């Protein structure tokens, strides 16, 4: 409901007893529960009034449908006219992320024999430069690499 665990609930009860005292606490609980009941009743009456004012074509109207996530789930994903479930089921996220991680780390899907460590900036077994290895240093007169995304 409110993500209140058992320890937090005990702490709230102890604080309530300390603030209101054991004499007034039952009366306070009754007052709070009565107020919550009245608020729920008021909200249900307001919903019924709105439904009756909208007319018979909105008799099945639910206020939860005004939430964009619920609206999309109800009208787009449940009908699945676009074939989204088929697309979602055809996409293997873990395999795709594994391929991306292999590409970033310079690994290929089938390990290839290497002839020793590659020099920094030289092509890795996957064909691109191995950018993850630390460079030894700049040669005299060599400019550091420019990264347009970092500026």
């Amino acid at each position: 409901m409110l993500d209140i665990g058992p320890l937090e609930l005990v702490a709230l009860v102890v604080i309530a007893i300390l603030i209101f005292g054991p004499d007034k606490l039952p009366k306070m609980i009754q007052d709070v529960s009565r107020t919550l009941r009245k608020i729920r009743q008021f909200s249900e009456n307001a919903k019924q009034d709105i439904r009756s004012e909208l007319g018979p074509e909105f008799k099945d109207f639910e206020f939860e449908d005004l939430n964009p996530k619920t609206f999309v789930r109800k009208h787009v994903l449940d009908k699945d006219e676009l074939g989204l479930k088929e697309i979602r089921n055809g996409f293997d996220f873990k395999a795709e992320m594994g391929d991306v991680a292999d590409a970033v780390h310079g690994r290929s899907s089938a390990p290839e024999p290497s002839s020793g460590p590659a020099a920094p900036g030289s092509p890795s077994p996957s064909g691109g430069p191995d950018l993850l290895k630390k460079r030894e240093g700049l040669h005299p007169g060599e400019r550091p690499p420019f990264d347009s995304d970092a500026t």
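Residues 111-116 have pLDDT under 50 and may be disordered. Residues 7-58 form one domain.
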